[in-house]
Design goal:
The complex is a heterodimer.
Chain A lengths: L12 H14 L2 E2 L12 E4 L6 E3 L3 E2 L10 H16 L4 E3 L7 H11 L7 E6 L7 H12 L4 E6 L5 H13 L3 E7 L6 H10 L4 E5 L11 H8 L2 E5 L6 H6 L16 H10 L6 E2 L6 H9 L8 H14 L1
Parallel strand pairs in A: 4-5, 5-6, 6-7, 7-8, 8-9, 9-10, 10-11
Antiparallel strand pairs in A: 1-2, 2-3
Helix pairs in contact in A: 2-3, 2-10, 3-4, 6-7
Chain B lengths: L16 H15 L2 H17 L5 H22 L9 H21 L9 H24 L14 H14 L6 H19 L6 H19 L3
Helix pairs in contact in B: 2-3, 3-4, 3-6, 4-7, 5-6, 5-8, 6-7, 6-8, 7-8
Classes of the chains: A alpha/beta, B mainly alpha.
Chain lengths: 316, 221
């Protein structure tokens, strides 16, 4: 078994567990579907730069929402969004890189009567800074929203040019939060540098039971710099859940309220106190409900986290 | 793109296999009954080329040019581009191929006067692949008949058919093979990323055609 890297590199395990417990109790609040705190909603964590609570499970749209003009698949995407909002979800994340996903989201939101709870997160993805504003406006029209809550520089593409644009939009009140993204462990050194030097509200990167590189530097830095963290590829684009589907769920999964492998994988991520939100993508209503169910109940403690890593490394 | 070596083909697949095959199915439904017309026209072109009929070169080139232009517009531009932004470039490449074939048709750039036996049979193998192996392989892979791809309307069998008809010719400029070979490689890679069991077919067709063209050029023919 690969030793579990420390989740708090500069603190002892006892301190880490204490912090984890404190965060679990104080920072994870249940929310209702419209974003108000309730006793029975999904757990939420505050966005550090504002204190606004955000449910800890969001909805990614990479591949799953790129369905073109296929009417039946668009209706299925709308059903996924409906189930997501009904279960108390808020953050939907997309990008101009994702083919027709933005159009499909906009179509679905219009059919659902523009849910008030929506936290619209998108990205700017163009090599020219001058073309950024035009692309953002096109994205906004596709989503059919008055403004985005969060805009991120996708995969750090031309970030030096796009960040000033996004910061200016935020200063003018046309945007609420600014962030940057990467995936699959790429350009972490540069990513870290930007986190240190710029007043970011959000960062987004990959983190899951098998890809834990972010635990060493990015997650602690996000906590220190009070930057919200969105986690992408929680299931390695489905590879992890497919690999684990062949194996029965261990009985200990019930101790953390999990009835599926996907929930175990999500709870591993959500147990990290620096994580604000994970964004699994799905085209299945059952799966989105299952994912949101992982935002309820107990989160794993340190011993359980080690158990999850050992089991998944053995089976996947 | 920085750290380009860390990217895999799957990182560029923007859609789910189910979405792609449903797009093919919708395209087929909206194209019906042109599949029958396209198949009949493809068989007629093959017969003309194989029998070395008079004006076969011009008719084959212009017929293929029509197919490539239809696919550029109706498949890539109107449909595939809705789930893959790269399809706008594919549409441009298919339009370019249509122009090259049309030019070859006008100036008599295809000549079916009598290619070598080996070359004719290599071409025939690709033609059979385009017209029969591609659809049967799709069925064998478990896809329904509504999602079958037909030469003349769908890119893969049309590219393979084009390569076959170019090989059967006694004279065909190598530039006419470039776009079909590149498309077959790109499509094969996409299908492989989608874990389609028939992904090897366009790749193999591209390799056979490229090897044949390279061998002919090395021998100065």
């Amino acid at each position: 078994m690969t030793p579990l890297p420390p989740r708090f590199p500069h603190t002892s395990r006892r301190q880490a567990l204490t912090a984890l417990a404190a965060l679990g109790a104080a920072a994870s609040l249940p929310l209702s579907a419209n974003g108000q705190a309730t006793a029975d909603g999904p757990l939420a964590r505050p966005i550090p730069s504002s204190g606004e609570p955000l449910p800890i499970v969001g909805l990614g749209t990479w591949i799953t929402f790129n369905v073109g003009n296929d009417r039946a698949l668009r209706e299925q995407s709308t059903a996924v969004m409906r189930a997501f909002f009904e279960a108390g979800g808020r953050l939907i994340d997309s990008s101009p890189m994702y083919g027709s996903a933005q159009d499909v989201i906009g179509d679905g939101l219009a059919r659902l009567g523009r849910p008030r709870a929506l936290f619209a997160a998108d990205k700017v993805w163009v090599g020219s800074g001058a073309r950024g504003p035009e692309q953002i406006e096109t994205s906004r029209q596709r989503w059919r929203v008055p403004r985005f809550d969060l805009l991120q520089v996708h995969n750090l593409l031309a970030w030096q040019e796009h960040l000033p644009t996004l910061m200016a939009m935020k200063a003018e009140g046309r945007l609420r939060y600014v962030g940057i993204t990467t995936s699959e462990g790429r350009r972490h050194r540069e990513f870290e540098q930007i986190m240190r030097e710029h007043p970011l509200d959000f960062v987004q990167f990959s983190y899951n039971v098998l890809d834990r590189e972010a635990e060493a530097r990015l997650l602690p830095l996000a906590r220190d710099r009070r930057i919200a963290v969105i986690v992408n590829r929680p299931f390695r684009q489905g590879d992890l859940t497919r690999a684990l589907a062949r194996h029965p769920l261990p009985s200990w999964a019930a101790e953390i309220g999990c009835s599926t492998w996907a929930q175990v994988l999500l709870k591993f991520i959500l147990a990290h106190p620096a994580v604000t939100c994970a964004i699994p993508a799905t085209s299945s209503v059952d799966h989105v409900r299952e994912n949101l169910a992982a935002a309820r109940g107990p989160l794993p403690d340190a011993a359980m986290l080690e158990r999850i890593v050992a089991q998944v490394e053995k089976l996947a | 793109m920085s750290e380009w070596w860390t990217y895999r083909p799957s990182d560029f697949l923007l859609f789910a296999p189910r979405t792609y095959y449903r797009l093919v199915e919708t395209y087929n439904a909206e194209s019906w009954p042109w599949q029958a017309v396209a198949l009949a026209a493809a068989l007629a072109l093959v017969a003309l080329a194989w029998r070395r009929a008079r004006h076969a070169g011009r008719i084959v080139a212009l017929g293929l040019a029509l197919a490539w232009s239809v696919i550029a517009w109706r498949f890539h531009w109107e449909r595939y581009a809705t789930i893959n932004w790269a399809a706008t470039y594919f549409a441009a490449a298919f339009a370019l191929q249509a122009l090259l074939l049309a030019w070859a048709g006008v100036v008599g750039g295809l000549d079916y006067g009598g290619a070598s036996r080996r070359r004719r049979y290599a071409g025939l193998a690709l033609i059979v692949t385009a017209l029969a192996v591609v659809p049967f392989a799709a069925l064998a892979a478990g896809r329904p008949w509504r999602q079958l791809e037909v030469a003349g309307l769908s890119p893969d069998p049309t590219a393979i058919l084009t390569l076959g008809l170019l090989l059967v010719a006694r004279r065909a400029h190598w530039t006419l093979s470039a776009v079909p070979v590149l498309w077959c490689l790109a499509s094969g890679l996409t299908l492989w990323t989608m874990k389609a069991p028939d992904a090897f077919i366009p790749m193999l067709a591209a390799l056979v055609a490229a090897a044949a063209v390279a061998s002919l050029r090395l021998r100065g023919r």
